[in-house]
Amino acid sequence: MKKHVIVTIGVLLVFSVLLAGLFIWRSRMDAGDSANPPVQEGNVNDTLSDGKQDGSDSETMWGTEHTQNIQEISGTENTLEKEETDMPITMIFAGDVLFRSYFREHYPSEGIGCAISNDLLDSFVNADLAMVNQEFPFSTRGVPMEGKQYTFRIDPSYVTALNDLGIDIVTLANNHVLDYGKDALKDTFTTLDEAGIRYAGAGESKERAEELQTFEINGKTIGILAASRVIPVVEWNVENEVPGVFTTYDGTALCEAIQKAKECCDFVAVYVHWGVEYKEYPEEYQRVLAKQYIDSGADFVVGTHTHCLQGIEYYNGKPIFYGLGNFGFGAGIERTLAIHVTILPDGNVEYMLIPAKAVNGCTVRMEEEEGRMLYRYMEEISEGIAVEAQGVVSQKEQLGNGS
User: Fold this and answer.
1) Which of 33, 160, 304, 389 keeps 20 to 30 A from 14, CA to CA?
2) Kind and range of the H or E element at 13?
3) Structure confidence by residue, pLDDT tens digits, 247-276
4) What is the pTM of this model?
């Protein structure tokens, strides 16, 4: 009996020693791995997706090296990135914007609704990217340019209207940004920077004025360049004095910028200030320059300055919208439009006209019949294009060399 008890006690002691050893070994393993926790089985992309919810990208959340390790260990692609790449990209481009007295009187109490209808506003806010021509400087400094018939300047506090409108980028390449001098233009840069709005076509240096603005959207890189063919005096040209405007009287510099942009961008848009005011047909130089831009790699050319709509033309399969007219000028506008651009997952691009007008300083979408009339008007003043249902623009025929 005692013998059996002794054996039993011995077995228990051995088992206890084994358990203690196993516990110590496991504790040491856990402690040694704490700096590099094992990748959890399951859907790695769920983790990455959670990391993006607060606006951080995967590199910020995990560190570049660790993100690469996760992708290598999982043996799968990041499906979140793939889903984003497979989504269309939507962009809105509209014409001249100026916050005139009517707007300044009503905006503080009524908000952006005093200047744009809700349905149009939704189109801008919901787009992945929205752009207009800012036809004024944001400043309270400076004096009006001597001898200039119209000079504009808006208090920087009104920059919130651009935020309300959903504007991501403006072009400053026009004939009004230096109406109140260099200090006012510098204030404009500061105001837009603080509001988180990009700007193209002007800068405190030649390099900044000519700088390509890029946006990473759904796995593609969108590039935007802007320049002006209309300035009142040569001193506005950034090549002569700074700060200043990127000009394109000679297309060489802009064409070179487009060529460089095409090396890193999937889609390049060029926004130009040009033409003769209130003339619905483009000047020959507009057509020549536009084709140079496309030959250099531009996918889409859009213009302003004429304060009226100009026609549309395709060249080598790429559209040129010569003039968008006034979009929000604090007054009545008989007809205007915004261009809704959709880059489809297969790479094809759809251009759709959004017909609009302004009544008592508020830009509204046209009723259906008015919209159809605008489509027919655009066909009349354009060359080789058709505007189909819902305002979709198409090339009516192949124009060969585009002439």
Assistant:
1) 33
2) helix 2-33
3) 999 999 999 999 999 999 999 999 999 999
4) 0.79
